[in-house]
């Protein structure tokens, strides 16, 4: 059985939908902290069980019969996130999984300027020593993380963020298709995959230009000094930890940490990944 955690999330749910086109529903199990939110999968013959990485006792039942477990990374930072991932990996191994897969990041690096990439690197080290074959899915940076900053661009006519650098922004849908193909055995990776990215990297200036074209109005890209950006976030009530997180994304992009593009994603999905116009169009529609 293939177990997918976080099945009610943006990525996990998409992966399950694409798995259903490749393997019978009875070969798929999903976990969620609130199983009721996954009832639509149960209605289609998928096994749904509760699981919480903060509760190790919930995992033996959730992972029972697993041949593969896909651990979808949690929303969290630092030791809290790494501890949750360790619990899930240990639970999968204890349940007898023959392979553990994990949604890592193309920029995973213990020296990254971006905290989540340091967390991913720490989790990959746990995987390396877990005792069973593993795959670290080095996903490109989700386009949703970029267009979060454009939520008010249509009304304000601008996006004001720190200096950045090129990032291989990538769509959830493309990554879900690729991960489903890997889970279904269409191809196998031992250890970290190559970066699973779109075909080009883009800056916030590029994103502003594409957004301007799609909205049919000028969107100015304004560069804000780092300290001013951080102060704006904290003065709006954002905790300092999250302000540092957001600033770290721009700092890491400036350092070129997310600029790598790779053809592996295209090979896995059998077509060109979504281009920037398509990704921006989809996200603007979702924000409308």
UniProtKB/TrEMBL annotation:
Domain of life, source organism: Bacteria
Class in the EC hierarchy, top level: oxidoreductase
EC code: 1.6.5.2
Record carries keyword NAD: no
Residue intervals of the NmrA-like domain: 2-264
Keywords for the protein's UniProt record, in alphabetical order: Oxidoreductase
InterPro entries assigned to the protein according to its UniProt record, in alphabetical order: NAD(P)-bd_dom_sf, NmrA-like, NmrA-type_oxidoreductase
Any GO MF annotation of the entry: NAD(P)H dehydrogenase (quinone) activity
Gene3D superfamilies: NAD(P)-binding Rossmann-like Domain (3.40.50.720), UDP-galactose 4-epimerase, domain 1 (3.90.25.10)
PANTHER family xrefs: NMRA-LIKE DOMAIN-CONTAINING PROTEIN, QUINONE OXIDOREDUCTASE 2
Protein name: Quinone oxidoreductase 2
Organism, scientific name: Nocardia macrotermitis
Originating gene: qorB_3
């Amino acid at each position: 059985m293939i177990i997918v955690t976080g099945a009610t999330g943006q990525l996990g749910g998409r992966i399950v939908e694409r798995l259903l086109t490749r393997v019978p529903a009875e070969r798929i199990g999903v976990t969620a902290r609130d199983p009721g939110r996954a009832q639509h999968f149960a209605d289609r013959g998928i096994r749904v069980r509760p699981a919480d990485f903060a509760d190790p006792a919930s995992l033996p039942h959730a992972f029972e019969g697993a041949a593969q477990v896909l651990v979808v990374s949690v929303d969290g930072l630092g030791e809290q996130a790494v501890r949750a991932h360790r619990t899930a990996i240990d639970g999968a191994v204890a349940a007898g999984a023959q392979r553990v897969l994990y949604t890592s990041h193309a920029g995973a690096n213990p020296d990254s300027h971006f905290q989540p990439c340091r967390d991913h690197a720490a989790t990959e080290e746990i995987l390396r020593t877990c005792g069973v074959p593993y795959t670290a899915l080095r996903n490109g940076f989700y386009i949703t993380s970029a267009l979060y900053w454009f939520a008010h661009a249509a009304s304000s006519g601008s996006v004001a963020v720190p200096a950045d650098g090129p990032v291989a922004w990538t769509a959830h849908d493309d990554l879900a298709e690729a991960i489903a193909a890997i889970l279904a055995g269409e191809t196998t990776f031992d250890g970290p995959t190559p970066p699973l990215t779109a075909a080009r990297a883009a800056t916030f200036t590029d994103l502003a230009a594409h957004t301007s074209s799609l909205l049919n109005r000028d969107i100015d890209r304004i560069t804000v000094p780092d300290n001013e950006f951080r102060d704006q976030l904290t003065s709006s009530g954002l905790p300092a930890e999250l302000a540092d997180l957001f600033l770290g994304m721009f700092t890491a992009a400036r350092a070129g940490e997310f600029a790598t593009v790779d053809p592996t994603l295209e090979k896995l999905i059998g077509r060109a990944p979504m281009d920037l116009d398509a990704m921006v169009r989809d996200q603007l529609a979702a924000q409308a």
